[in-house]
Amino acid sequence: MAKRALFVIDTQVDFNDEQGSLTSFRRSDPKMQRIADLMDEVHREGGFVVATADTHPPLHHPEHLVTYRRMLQETMGPDRFEAYMDKAYEAYREELKLYPPHCEYGTPGWQPTAVIAAAFERLGDDLILIQKPTYRLVDGCVMKGPAALVGRTGVQVLEFLKGQGVEEVIVTGLITPVCVLAAVESAVGAGFRVTVDERLVDSYDEDSHRQGLERIAGAGGIVVPAADGM
Hints:
The chain has 8 helices and 8 strands, in the order E-H-H-E-H-H-H-E-E-H-E-H-E-E-H-E. By secondary structure, it is α/β, with parallel strands linked by helices. It has a single domain (3-224), classed as 3-Layer(aba) Sandwich (Rossmann fold). Strands 1, 2, 3, 4, 5, 6, 7 and 8 form an 8-stranded mixed beta sheet that branches. Helix 2 (29-44) packs parallel to helix 5, helix 3 (65-76) packs across helix 4 (78-95) and helix 7 runs parallel beside helix 8 (206-218). The protein is globular, with a radius of gyration of 16 Å. It is an enzyme of class 3 (hydrolase). InterPro entries: Isochorismatase-like_dom, Isochorismatase-like_sf, Isochorismatase_Nicotinamidase.
């Protein structure tokens, strides 16, 4: 049987906790537990778990800036560091025209929700973790995972999964019409069969969630209704 890959997109406090800056007011809490359970299941069966963290320069929290820059430089190397930094700042300034400050590196809102953090801990070094400065998984950089992937791009993660015989990608997480949709588009474009269980993704409200699911289906993702969920 071909291996599955599970994408866990931006399951962070700023998108889920009631104190988050782009919050869904805890409406997503039951979904976080389902995602954590599925992470364990996919890991047990020998599949791959790829998590993303929306990660922006700490413009409003300069106390984290030195650590942020050092972390990127050590992971990416000097050749890619400056170009990545320029892209990260440019992308975040554009987002700030639409959204309040969110997911700035090192802040409480940037952290994964508690149940997801516990699942990350259980997976240990088998978790592939991508920090991304834009909506798109492919723009991110691998911060944790197999040694050959650390410091590589999201594009190279998709290539790695292909090389490992993965045919199906399950996309979960937040926010349905934004970063979840972008992950689906990237995975479909890479040739994967992509499924999205509506019980495992969420948005700010029901209307935007439904609009996101429609756009996911339009992008080639297979949307599994709640009644037929995994």
